# Entry
Amino acid sequence: MAKAETREMKQGFGDAFAAAFELVITPGIFGFLGWLIDGRLDLFPVFTVAFTVITLAYASWRLARTYGESLDRALVERRAAWRAEGAPR
# Structure
C-alpha cells in the first residue's frame, strides 16, 4: 500500500471517528444542560428532550451536508484526473 493511500485511510478513519464522537457527545452535552434547566424549573423533560432533539437534528444535517460536499469534491477531482489522462470529453 502506498504512503498516500495509507495517509488517506488514516485521515478517513480520523474523520469518521470525529463525526461519530460529535453525533454522540454534542447532543449528550445539550441534553445534560436541558436536564439541569428542567431540574431548576421543575419542567422535566421539556428542555432535556428539546435540546437533545434539536442538537441531534443539527448534527445530522451538518454531517450529511459535509459528506455531500466531500463527495462532490471527490467527483470533481476524479473527473479532472480522468480528463488529464486523455479521456474523451
In short: The CA atoms of residues 33 and 56 lie 14 Å apart. The helical segments are 3-41, 46-84. The chain has two helices and no strands.
